[in-house]
Automatic annotation (TrEMBL):
This is 3-oxoacyl-[acyl-carrier protein] reductase. The keyword GTP-binding does not apply. Pfam families: adh_short_C2. One of its GO terms (molecular function) is oxidoreductase activity. The keyword Isomerase does not apply. Keywords: Oxidoreductase. It comes from Oharaeibacter diazotrophicus. GO terms for biological process: monocarboxylic acid metabolic process. Belongs to the short-chain dehydrogenases/reductases (SDR) family.
Length: 246
């Protein structure tokens, strides 16, 4: 198996992040699995290792500057310079706008937006110095079309799309490619935490007629990380069952 370098996948203790970490390991990356829960991160790293891949783990909250520094340091110590960052950490909280508190809003943006910012900020200097690197940010199709009872979540994911485009304009000519993935509803614990009514309404809207699987999103991330995606700059790819068509 080729050695493709070192990848960090945040929020990889379950769902999309877990599938992405496993896929990248099978592609040939050494993967640092991060999750807010260190136990879950360690379990995923052990699964990858048992399948013949290279993986280590680090707990930590991506909205904490100190935790982010520790996550990146753990990857470098275990495997060397970070060549691929997948910003996947996130959570969902469902409420009508009039019932949202400032604390709900602040935590949503702290994890999704500040977390993405801090992780990119932590790995980018070394990538620029090397003249190469890839960043893939996990947004959501709700950042493109909005979602009922998910104003704060939709807003945070839209911010990730905007940051992806802006940073890509700054650094692509210096060898670092930055893109995003905006999944539709995927069969993950995060989506299953939404109400059954919400999930039924959303499924009825999808041209494909079904939710996606984490492995289908992982395939998109794998593509964006590969040389086959060399012309993709500041793009947002949508494995979304047809919920958004661009």
């Amino acid at each position: 198996m080729a050695d493709l370098g070192t990848a960090i996948v945040t929020g990889a203790g379950s769902g999309i992040g877990r599938a992405v970490a496993a896929r990248l390991a099978s592609d040939g990356y050494a993967v640092l699995v991060n999750d807010l829960d260190p136990g879950r991160a360690g379990a995923v790293a052990a699964e990858i290792a048992s399948a013949g891949g290279r993986a280590a783990s680090a707990g930590g909250d991506v909205s904490s500057e100190a935790d982010v520094e520790a996550i990146v340091a753990a990857a470098r110590t275990a495997f060397g310079p970070v060549t691929l960052l997948v910003n996947n950490a996130g959570f969902v909280h469902q409420a009508l706008f009039e019932n949202l508190s400032p604390a709900d809003f602040d935590r949503m943006f702290a994890v999704h937006v500040r977390g993405t910012f801090l992780m990119m900020r932590a790995v980018l200097p070394a990538m620029l110095a090397a003249g190469s690197g890839v960043i893939v940010n996990v947004a959501s199709q709700l950042g493109q079309i909005g979602g009922i009872e998910l104003v704060h979540y939709s807003g945070a994911k839209a911010a990730i799309v905007g940051m992806t485009k802006a940073l890509a304009r700054e650094v692509s000519a210096r060898g670092v490619r930055v893109n995003a993935v905006a999944p539709g509803p995927i069969n993950t614990p995060l989506v299953m935490a939404l109400s059954e009514d919400w999930r039924n309404r959303k499924a009825a809207e999808l041209p494909l007629g079904r939710f996606g699987e984490p492995e289908e999103v992982a395939a998109t991330v794998s593509f964006l990380a590969s040389p086959a995606a060399s012309l993709f700059v500041g793009q947002t790819l949508g494995p979304n069952s047809g919920d958004v068509m661009l």
